[in-house]
Amino acid sequence: MKKAIVSLALALVAAVAFALPTTQDVEAQVRQGNYSQAEAMMNEVVTARPGSARAHYVYAEILAHNRNFVKAADEAQKARQIDPALSFTDPAKFRAFEQLLAREQSGSLGKQRGPCPPSIVRPVEAAASRRCASAPPAVNTL
Known about the structure:
This protein is mainly alpha-helical and 142 residues long. The chain has one domain: Tetratricopeptide repeat domain (Serine Threonine Protein Phosphatase 5, Tetratricopeptide repeat), CATH 1.25.40.10. Helices cover 63% and strands 0% of the residues. It contains seven helices and no strands. Mean pLDDT is 75; it is low at 11-17 and 117-142.
């Protein structure tokens, strides 16, 4: 009996230690401007949940903020393949994000001065009015 209780306790501790980051965890990192940490957290999430269109989309947004537009476009494409109806977000917002990624990859926005905020921080509206601000913007809900 003691062995079973100890095994159960160890299993619970291991589960807590290896828990995936939550949306709130990622949002907190974004609010604090820790985009590298947010990127690492979302990488962990998409690795553990490769069938989550929402996770791939949020990961794409963070990658875009970190100016990794090629990988961001790949993650956005994965999100679209998983859920072609785009039910994980506003379809118009997603299409605008894809267009922004395409423009960034083609260089049509010109040389950027700083990191571009992902759509969780309204990149489409921001891109229309600036060349990527350096101040961390407000965060929308993931």
